[in-house]
Amino acid sequence: MRKIFALIALLVIFAFMILAVVEMRGEDGGFGEPVNTDMDDYFLEDSQPHNQVNNVVTAILFDYRGLDTLGEATVLFSAVSGVLTVLRKYQIKKLEVKK
Amino acid sequence: MNWKMSRVVRTVTDVMVVPIIVFGIYLIIHGHLTPGGGFQGGAVVASSTALLIIAYGSFRDYKKDFSSVESIGLTLFIFLAILGILLGATLFYNFGAGTGGLFGGRVAEGINPGYINTGGTVPLMNIMVGLEVTAALSLILWMMAKSSDSMEVEA
Prior knowledge:
Number of strands of chain A: 0
Distance between the termini of chain B: 14 Å
Shape of chain B: elongated
Low-confidence stretches of chain B: none
Largest interface: A-B, 33 and 45 residues
Oligomer: heterodimer
Largest sheet of chain B: none
Mean pLDDT of chain A: 85
Shape of chain A: flat
Order of helices and strands of chain B: HHHH
Radius of gyration of chain A: 26 Å
Number of helices of chain A: 5
Low-confidence stretches of chain A: none
Helix content of chain B: 55-70%
Radius of gyration of chain B: 19 Å
Mean pLDDT of chain B: 86
Helix content of chain A: over 70%
Structural class of chain A: mainly alpha
Number of helices of chain B: 4
């Protein structure tokens, strides 16, 4: 019984996925064309006159999506904190040797 | 660590460490022109630390240095981000673009070969992130090497 329900749910989700793919077309109605390109076009056109940066990827990483980069740097910082916490046994031993 | 690797490995390390560091710094400061940036360049520079630890083994206590550089890099990055608010715009606003100051040059529209003195705050943030990533990965490597050594000796 559970397997039948799972199969029905899977088929419904699959049908919605197919529907979404069929609905998502370009402006001319053809497949394979980029859709929802407002943001991409803005970045590509704006990064040179506004940010004076040739590399659009870097402009997105450090200006438009700078908060995301800050999060990545914070993840690295917390990783270092975790390593130092796990390996603090070494520091404690060193202190005991000094005493 | 009290051991060293063979003379061959140490000589190759001596030859290769400086080009690796130079290439990493190139990746960091050309982040707004070429593929690469702070994270990638920092990882390249940190790989030279790994090479030195593997080849030479014995290291002085660099924990405080790496930790300080990491904290300074992250703090300056956040400071640059908040400076956008203080100068009357939003967080991470590129206040230095096209002003003529440091990294304040103008780029030509369209396809152009690129000029390093452009980009505003983007190259500065690249350098800060590069400092942070270099120090963080070096600190992780150094700490693991040192702690595994102490377990071996004192256990």
